Amino acid sequence: MSSLISQLWGDEIFDPFLSMVNKCPVLNIPTDWKETPEAHIFISDLPGLKKEEVKVEVDEGRVLQISGERPPVDKDGENEKWHRVERCRGKFLRRFRLPENAKTDQVKASMESGVLVVTVPKEKVKKPEKKVIEIK
Fold first, then answer.
1. What is the Cα–Cα distance from 120 to 48, expressed in whole angstroms?
2. Of 21, 61, 108, 132, which sits most exposed with the smallest number of CB within 10 A?
3. DSSP string of 25-89?
4. Which domains are delineated in the chain?
5. CA-CA distance, 21 to 45, in Å (whole number)?
């Protein structure tokens, strides 16, 4: 089997998972989602991107959408020779359905050092009040 892989891929080590990740931009945007008593917090790794290259939206169906595009490699340099281009390029999109307690009109986003943090505040859950019913 290893000789077959060597024939197909040369001396490079072939990893099927890494091959899939490099072909699919959405897999290159790892995102953590944590919930606190006050908010849902989404943390996405977007190394090398500026905040102007990323778009954060919430649609009417309570779906948080993070999208953007990694610009293509600039191959116009006359005295440049690329030996490898392995970093993923192209458009990306992640979508998350928000729970009913999400305050979609108060979403905030910030980005620093290639890490996007989206905070979606939660509505306070009203505890049901006890109502005493008079027995007649």
1. 25
2. 132
3. GGGG--EEEEE-SSEEEEEEE-TT--GGGEEEEE-TTSEEEEEEEEPPP----TT---S---S--
4. 2-75+84-121 (2.60.40.790)
5. 15
Q: Give the DSSP H/E element, type plus range, for residue 110.
A: strand 108-112
Cα torsion 119, 105, 93, 72 to 10°: value is -80
> C-alpha distances in angstroms, 83 versus 75, 77, 112, 123?
11, 14, 30, 52
Q: Contact, 104 vs 37, CB < 8 A?
A: no
Give me the residue label for tokens 């998972």.
Answer: 17
Find tokens 């050092």 and name the residue: 113
Task: Indicate the pLDDT class of residue 76, thresholds 50, 70 and 90.
Answer: low
**104 secondary structure, DSSP code:** G
Per residue in 19-43, pLDDT tens?
555 555 555 689 999 999 999 999 9
